[in-house]
Write a structure and sequence with these properties.
six-stranded mixed β-sheet, seven-stranded mixed β-sheet, 22% strand, single chain
Length: 455
């Protein structure tokens, strides 16, 4: 057996997992295919995938206690991947499309017990009309979005080798490293210690802000009942529409990322107010990669920190004024390395906790600390996935939720087609309510684009 000790984000992602509470923390990438891959080809591709990405076939072992009492954990795997746990096949060719939708919902809600099974699962379903779906379900402890986007083309290449009966070369089967999170930081040990101590100041700073201006509690922040389904509404965007959004954001002095983040905040304010919630202050976590820019750094792991824009809605009201305020705050956070300070302090603190205590922090918080979560990987497009007899026509992603952010917006890009993914917990908000929010979001963006359209 081979083992690799957990990093901070591995442990955090495991802590954010609770079967009894309905929190899987396992995103699902849903690939829509023309053509029907043979099950044996997918199984063979999985064997090769586990050579290049061995943690895909791993399980978790506690190192200094039980699953609840341990502070330290590791991934553990053997040379022979457990294909029976990694793959399942459904022949739905004689079933209506509703059968595929039921399977999709079941896959999205599926809990992966990392102590008993691997953090990756591929579910192949053949559909009527020579169509199929391939669900790639991954626990977030396995890797972040960028790492998974880099994995998918390798999976496609292995599938094509399996279909052709050929062997991938040694380079294709070379292990993609799972690098330590701190490898991504260009910091000396003393600099890390200094930023860690400064992270305490970031939390004190945040506490003072909350004392002066309490965070508004949105409708989706109230309930702690996360037993419902993990659901996602997908909004594909035509290339011309997305370009129009980019151009409008640029003319307004911003960029697409922060325009969409502003739109998500403003839309949530409008939607909450329409339901009788007074909104004065709102914040959001926005994912930021810690991988260094401008130099090669491939790592199949989690390398994330977060910016936290915090908007005073007594002063700012529309996308046009929220967007520059977000940009100002993120620049200030970058300048003082606030996201790195928080990360290093959280890392030190979390690694001292027993798993049961870590989970209490995540699932039993008495108040709302963060209203929203926004994640945008439009700048990291998934290339076209295809081969002889099969072609992926669309890629959707569904991201499960944990308290208290019951609605999360993620943005993905497949082969030049962008998609807004509105993820929600069905026990906290209804599909009708999320569709209302989506309509408000699109209306706010349309108004912004009309005001900053081409002269």
């Amino acid at each position: 057996m081979t083992t690799q000790p957990f990093e901070y984000l591995d442990k955090a992602c495991l802590a954010a997992t609770s079967g009894p509470l309905g929190c899987s923390n396992a995103p699902t990438w849903e690939l829509h295919l023309d053509g029907q891959l043979p099950a044996a080809a997918v199984q063979q591709a999985l064997r090769w995938l586990c050579v290049a990405y061995p943690t895909c076939g791993a399980t978790v072992v506690p190192l200094d206690g039980t699953a609840d009492s341990a502070k330290h954990f590791a991934w553990s795997w053997s040379d022979e991947p457990p294909i029976a746990q990694l793959f399942e096949f459904h022949d739905l060719r004689d079933q209506p499309d509703a059968a595929a939708d039921r399977l999709r919902d079941a896959v999205h809600d599926r809990f992966l017990d990392l102590f008993a099974r691997p953090p990756l699962q591929l579910i192949l379903a053949w559909l009527p009309g020579n169509r199929s779906r391939l669900f790639v379900k991954q626990h977030h402890g396995l890797a972040d979005g960028r790492a998974m986007i880099e994995l998918l083309p390798d999976l496609a290449a292995f599938l094509n080798h399996a279909l052709a009966g050929t062997q991938p070369d040694a380079a294709a089967l070379a292990v993609v490293p799972r690098r330590a999170e701190l490898d991504a930081f260009d910091l000396t040990p003393w600099q890390r210690r200094g930023l860690l101590l400064a992270g305490i100041g970031e939390y004190i700073r945040s506490a003072f802000v909350s004392l002066r201006r309490p965070l508004s509690v949105l409708r989706q922040n109230v309930s702690l009942d996360y037993s419902g389904g993990n659901r996602t509404l997908h909004v594909p965007l035509a290339a011309a529409q997305l370009q129009g959004w980019k151009d409008a954001a640029k003319r307004a002095g911003g960029n697409l990322n922060w325009m969409l983040a502003a739109a998500f905040l403003v839309a949530n304010k409008r939607w909450n107010e329409a339901h009788g919630v007074k909104v004065t202050r709102m914040n959001a976590t926005t994912a930021a990669e810690t991988r260094p820019r401008g130099k090669p750094f491939r790592s199949f792991a989690n390398h994330l920190a977060f910016h936290i824009p915090d908007i005073d809605f007594t002063r700012f009201h529309a996308i046009a004024d929220v967007m520059p305020e977000i940009q100002r705050q993120v620049k200030a956070q970058n300048d003082r390395r606030a996201h790195l300070k928080r990360y290093l302090f959280e890392r030190w603190f979390a690694l001292t906790l027993k798993m049961a205590d870590f989970r209490k922090l995540l699932f039993a918080s008495p108040r709302t600390v963060v209203n929203l979560n926004f994640s945008n990987v439009l700048a990291i497009p998934i290339p076209r996935l295809r081969g002889p007899g099969w072609d992926v026509t669309a890629v959707r992603v569904s991201t499960p939720l944990i308290p208290r952010t019951a609605i999360v917006l993620t943005l993905t890009n497949y082969d030049g087609v962008a998609t807004l993914n509105f993820n929600f917990k069905a026990s906290v908000v209804t599909e009708v309510e999320v569709r209302e929010l989506m309509a408000v979001f699109q209306s706010e963006v349309a108004q912004f684009v009309a005001a900053h359209g081409a002269p």
